[in-house]
Amino acid sequence: MPAAPPALPRTWRPLGPRVVGTVLGLGLVAVLAAAWLTFDAETRAAFTLLQRATVIGFVLLGLLILFGLMRSRVTAERDRLVVVNGFRRREYSWPQVVAVHLPPGAPWVTLDLADGGTASALGIQGSDGERSRRAVRELRALVADPPG
């Protein structure tokens, strides 16, 4: 059954990566803080400034990667579709988007483009189950009957 187009603007975000990213990020910081606090003063003093900076740098890099995955989204606006995958943002006018696909077992939505290419949209993840199927129906309704 075709879905009615949603009210615009409408943003879809994946639930799974946001939950996993939050849990892993907090867990990473908690484990490293607990490890540091369990070291005695002599062991802590043995770490040089460069070693401390390296560990902190790797933790920040890991948190940055998790943040990039967590910020993925798809936003339908009156004049365009905005797809944010990690730290890359793409904007498509409605006539550029021809079809929306999420086959069973696919990790995320694929957009067919008018130029014959495809684009991944990590903002709608197949692992979100019914939530992702509803988002695909809404996005398909917008592609079939573009706003504006």
Task: Explain how this protein is built.
The chain is an alpha+beta fold and 148 residues long. It folds into 2 domains: 15-69; 72-144, Roll (PH-domain like). It is built from 4 helices and 7 strands. The chain has helices at 15-38, 41-46, 49-70, 130-144; strands spanning 10-12, 73-76, 81-85, 88-92, 97-101, 108-113, 118-125. The longest helix is centred in the N-terminal third of the chain and has 24 residues, at 15-38. The mean pLDDT is 94.
In brief:
By secondary structure, this protein is an alpha+beta fold. The protein has four helices and seven strands; from the N terminus they run E-H-H-H-E-E-E-E-E-E-H.
In CATH, what is the class of the largest domain?
Answer: Mainly Beta
How many beta-strand segments?
A: 7
Compute the average pLDDT: 94
- CATH architecture descriptor text of the largest domain: Roll
In what order do the strands lie side by side in the largest sheet?
Answer: 1-2-3-4
What would you call the shape?
Answer: elongated
CA-to-CA gap between the ends? 24 Å
Question: What's the CATH topology name of the largest domain?
Answer: PH-domain like
Number of domains: 2
Largest sheet: 4 strands, antiparallel
Computed Rg: 21 Å
Helix-strand topology string: EHHHEEEEEEH
